[in-house]
Queue: 4 jobs
Job 1
Amino acid sequence: MKILISFLILSSLLLAACGANAVAQVDITPGDCVLSPGEQVTLSLTGVIPSDALIQWSTSGGVVLAQNQGLNAVFTAPPDGGDVQISVYISTNLTPSSPITRICRVAGNTDPPPTPSAPALLPTSTSLGPNALSVTISEVMSNPCGNEDYKKWNEYVELYNYGSQPVDVGGWWLADNGPDNHADMLVSWNDRRPNISLGNVYTNSTIIPAGGFAVILSPIYAEGMPPHNMPYHFPDETTILTIAEGDRLGDDIFGIIGDGDGRDVLVLYSGGENAIREVISTYGSPLSITNYPQDIRDNRTDLIPLDLKDCTSAERASPTAPDTQESWVQVRDGTPGEAPFE
């Protein structure tokens, strides 16, 4: 039985510019958080929060999606049992507080075991904050095969975790320099398309294992038209992500432009839709980045983003290579979920 507990207690939140000391008085409710696998609970913040605060939620398992400017969040329990730590980071003047935490206990899974073809569940992330910097933009497919009617289905951005620990990228943001510098929040594929299978891949998590890949797809990827319907093969155990809102990566109309004079740079960051707290990775050597995604621009002093030929992606030659022209190569048809530096 799916339980949705809603504690909307905004009347107890005093949004006042009272400084970072007030953050210590904030708590997460409900205090007793016990769920079954896959069930949901609405978590709320109580206490005094500075009016200029940036609020970010993260979780060591399952999915947590912020609402109401971060004052509430819907937590979906993972499919396996155990204790899950929910953390909230409240930043003032772009300086994050120590995390405010709540433990949610998930009862053991009573569902039948998965079929042999189903992928194993990812390990839960450990004590990694939202600013883990071992994740890099490793490939950008911004000029897929076909005309504009096909491109919107098949653009993707690949991420690679070259660190020694898993990293949860749920709630991170990806922004391009389109007409309005639209930012997309990353969620698991199952958050948007739970009934569409993409093979032996991870679709129920936003965690990238150490040495693993994630591929960010449009949520309408599986709805593309022949002859370019679902053109990619994803290696087993690739994490598949998508975006929390909308149907197209990047700008809602033009997507991520990969050829011609108006090519789009990309910025992966933690923060919010309208505020950058920390830049994680970039593609295209954007102009000096401010605290606002609306300011993202191509520096126009080099030849990146690459002017891609049809059916090609831009791939980073090494996961730790700087975002310079020499670090990117064109790859015919793209290689989502794999790279020469594995």
Job 2
Amino acid sequence: MFHLQEKIDQNDVYIIAEMSANHGGSLDNALRIVKEAAKAGADCVKIQTYTADSLTIDCDNAYFRIKGGLWDGYKLYDLYREAGTPYEWQGKIKEACESCGIDFLSTPFDRDGVDFLEQLGVESYKIASFELVDIPLIEYAASKGKLMIMSTGMGSAPEIQDAVNACRRVGNEQIVLLKCCSEYPAPWEDMCLGDIPAMRQRFQVPVGLSDHSAGSLGAVVGVTLGACVVEKHVRLDSVESADSKFSMTMDEFARMVRDVRNAKVIAQGSKGEGNSLTEGEKTSMVFRRSVFAVRDIEAGEMFTKENLRVIRPGYGVKPKYLKELLGKRSSRAIGRGEPVSDEVLREVRGS
């Protein structure tokens, strides 16, 4: 069973560790990433199912050369050939996920990739931001009846709606959108995580975050704004790859998982107008201020600013009643350091 819907139903956060190219060309590294991500608290490890030929053509003209950014100067075909996860590894990676008790997820980039993943028995599909406009691919993947997770980086509202409609057109209502900034790494000012609640309202589906920013802050903010999924690239300390420069080490990822889980606890729930006390607050009530006798007071003696004060602890009547007490006479003797009780206040009012 793919556990994302279960997490959503429980108002929890589903955390995806994105492997991408960070296996560095080694199956052993890929399997180690699975084990370490599971140990760090991931719910899922995601890979990508493509070949260089499924993404582009082997062409060396200016259209197919990357200009600027992490991959400046790369030919697209060469980048994808270097970064891809061989198809013959993917069943073994899925088995490793199952052995570790976490979900396996992959991003297909063409119909053949979808067919291959169907043979593996996947339970969900991830659509990358760059494929958000590939409506034929989305329709084909959605037609398999599996949960569709779609990143929306670069997507306009109409383009996101087109992708959602493509799923619904083939009878698939199992849709989760991921807010995303398709920059690597993504700067804070371009994240625009305030869109998360608006996306949830506009498209009427759960919304998470595919986070390419540095550190845990983006993920924490996303969760406080209602993100039900956090996807983050992870890497091994010793492995360099096309994606390693904007990926988290496993120690960093483990800290992010803790931060995200704690942020969810902090953000959820509301006391409402009643402002009901937590169990911990109930034990702190004693340290509030209240009205105490600071001198011995005889029965019939007048309450004054000299013999009454508002001090800690909170065993007496609330400070707001001090003004009502002043100038009235005490119905009983009250020793220095004793609280003015509710009963004394009632007696004063009855006199």
Job 3
Amino acid sequence: MLLSGPVWRFVAAVSIGRGVRYFGGGVLAVRYGDQVLDALRTHGPTITAVVLVVVVLGISGWLLWRRAQA
């Protein structure tokens, strides 16, 4: 068996974790939803470019690190 504890504990932990996650996301969406949409409309291309650069640099750094470890 993969689980080292009771199944009910696992189910409870996953349920609580997801509940907190989705409740928090809902609260943030209600509180900041319109502001975030306005910011994305205004700065969307810049935000996209920055995120892509960070992802490419992160993947490149990870690949270089793995190559150095081999």
Job 4
Amino acid sequence: MADDRLSVIFGALADPTRRAILGRLADGEATVTELTAPFSISMPAISRHLKVLERAGLIARSRSGQRLSSTLRAAPLQEATEWMERYRRFWDASFDRLDAHLRQAEPGREAD
């Protein structure tokens, strides 16, 4: 079940427009109109992106009178980060082993 949730989160993050929207929402809540401004796409297209982000749990939408705003929900990003952290540790250890191997091999290198 957690892997399915991660698939939805990573699927939402796969699109550069959605990542840009999340970046904007990291600065604070915004309306669809405010989120549409920096893009050369329509308001309905932004709304579709927002629905994907909301399904992934990356944003929350709320209405206050006529104003519909979106806010960032960071918890799913933390889940994705924790999943990726395991692989970062793997690559760090691999590079540390490579570095150690290269340092051992260096004194015995033949001159060109």
